[in-house]
Amino acid sequence: MSLTTPPRLPEKSVTELTALRHQLHRRPEVSGAEAETAKRIAAELTQLGADRLWQGLGGHGVAAEFAGQVPGPTVLIRCELDGLPIAEVSDLPYRSELAGKSHVCGHDGHMTMVMGVGHGLAYGLANRPAKGRVILLFQPAEETGMGAPAVIASADWAAIKPDYAFAIHNLPGMALGHIGLCRSTAACASRGMKVTLAGKSSHAAMPDDGVSPAPALAQLMTDLPELGPGGVLDEAFRLCTLTHVNLGEPAFGIAPGDGELRCTLRSVTDTGMAGLIEQATALVTSTAREHGLKAEITWHDVFAATVNGATANDIATRAAESCAIPVEMLEHPMRFSEDFGCFGLDGAEAAMVYLGSGEEQPQLHNPDFDFPDALIPVGAGFFLTIVDQLLGLRDGGS
After folding, report:
1. CA dist., res. 260 & res. 144, Å (int)
2. What is the pTM of this model?
């Protein structure tokens, strides 16, 4: 499929942006460790002449302001800095140079599309917005769910806080260059539940003298998934996925005295998640008590549901139509989670937009995934069109 390049992104930028994506792809950094990526992004934004630059947001986050001539709304365009702890399987000339790390979620492409907005605002046909301001946010630690909350909690957030927020996530399985929007929830709420059970070890010849967590673990491995069997992605959707179980020591002479279980809870709504947490906690507590064990529960990788606002969806739809990009209203949200939902909870009119990366494209987090370069001008032009709708773009020449 050939893609029509949306307006306002200078043609000379496409080659530069493609080269930038390949450079970012070679040097992925995982959540919380994006120092070199952030440094590179900050240097690019400085070269583009951003009016203000923030660094160290919520860790390694970077944000740039492009200001209009008069006051007006603040429009945030957000992408993610982090890669994944997954070894890339690829013969690409720009494949990852860092063992066990890769950009197989496409965050390298997301960063490049947002940098394309900077190109348009800096020296393209657009130049600065007529009013208000554009904030380009390169957010850390999305994959763990810790990045967006940390950015919002940072001391600099008050100077950045937007009225509107938009982000793109590429979506394998959707036609290349098509846009998908969800009417309400765009990505599920989820969180990791770590259960630690403590009993008493004993000699393997005398297991009755100890308190083994094995029966409780076996029971929980059956009962926890029954709390969330999956099914249709409506408001009643619940999914509990076992991800790890550990029992005792790798030995033959010791009857175990401790065990650990990890699972991921998932729901379409935050209210549904609150109910699932309550049920799972009660189940673990009662099961541990039944078997004479002490139980500890800790929570990890916490994501609120990402919910699109109706107004933001309308803005995104008009921008796509203006760019002649086909729009699909998706019947259900994605099962995966995204911490972009925090910006909506913080008061911004927000929308997570899905951009098709190809019907035959490997799935996100597959070791052979690679973001299609053809999407760079599509995403950048789409974002610039949103800015034009909300703030107006002056014809500054090039």
Report:
1. 20
2. 0.94
